[in-house]
Amino acid sequence: xxxAVRRNPTAVFITAARRxxxxxxxxxxxxxxxLITNPAxxxxxxxxxxRNYHKSPLYDKLRAVLGNGLLTSEDAFxxxxxRIAQPAFHHQxxxxxxxxxxxxxxxxxxxxxxIPSEKGPVDIDEEMMRLTRTVVLRTLLGGDLGPFAxxxxxxxxxxxxxxxxxxxxxxxxxxxxxxxYRRFLAARAxxxxxxxxxxxxxxSSAAGSADxxxxxxxxxxxxxxxxxxxxxxxxxxxxFLLAGQETTSLALTWTWYLLSQHPEARHRLEEEIDxxxxxxxxxxxxxxxxxxxxxxIDEAMRLYPPAWGFxxxxxxxxxxxxxxxxxxWLVFVLPYVLHRLPAFWEAPDAFDPDRFSPERNAERPxxxxxxxxxxxRQCIGNQFALIEAQLTVATLAQVYRLRLAPGHxxxxxxxxxxxxxxxxxxxxxxRERVCRSED
Length: 439
What we know:
The chain is α+β, with helices and mostly antiparallel strands. It contains 16 helices and twelve strands. The strands form four sheets. The chain has a five-stranded mixed sheet. The relative contact order is 0.17.
């Protein structure tokens, strides 16, 4: 099965789930595991019996780049790091940062005015990455990337591809001195340099900021009173710099793609934005009045979840769906698969934002929609990402309409995250805002 998983993992897993049911035994190379799709089993692994499961050895590839931080660490060390970071993601604090998010979106809208119409398509994947990186730097890290700003996105793409393509390998070929591996090492060095720049810049600036980096710099161990080491600080900053921008930018990229393919949904979105905002820029308090905008984003993350899959390793024996799970075996929980199962989603491959209406949400079992994971290891930044995405869509869709470049092939690329394999070139078309005061 290993060659097939390397070629097209999402197709392999969807076929297995639809053909064999709730619990599917998989042998991928030397590893044994279960692919689970029953919501009760998913809840058991991610929430009710979460202490029996660690991130699987597949995450060692990611740990080699990010280090042992909030995303990759376990047990007491993970809990300590989570407690340090949690205040930065309190709901009231995120609401207070919404203005920074909205400002970044407005700056993107202004910059798009300078793009000449004859230039043709623009890679929206790159545009959204630039926007979300700006938000992360301003809100969480309180700075900029200086001389590394123009190189970070390309470097992360190289690293992402290296890890994604080697995720299912046996390990002995990953570090051969090939040109591709040397490109990976160079890209990782760029990311490390960018992180060191951010930390150094903050250490030399005035204290008293309330962003995440300031909290990490001032954090002390409750038992020893020791501060984070420079290496641990670097690990956490790397985690938030990359994880904080990558997934949100991809959610936005897939949202624009789906809207370009479904003009009725796009028109309804535009009508809602025009009616509620009446031509003014959106603010945090407007989001509650933009329910369809939120549904569009939710549906985009259902069809193309940026964090498309994750896995756990059992620390001791367990039972899933009536089957014995030996300790050391893996459990695969794949949002990309869960989100497309006919048992839970009518016409699962169709784009239908109204499936996230309150009425239809209430009918659907929990633990079948997991764009941010679930349980104690649920993404710490889920509300941050959703608010950022809603403000971005409302701001840009108010004044622009994005159209996929004619003839462009769109193909999901399941690396660490679910990227568009060939980018997302789109034509940016200004549109007239509809203001009720002018009716």
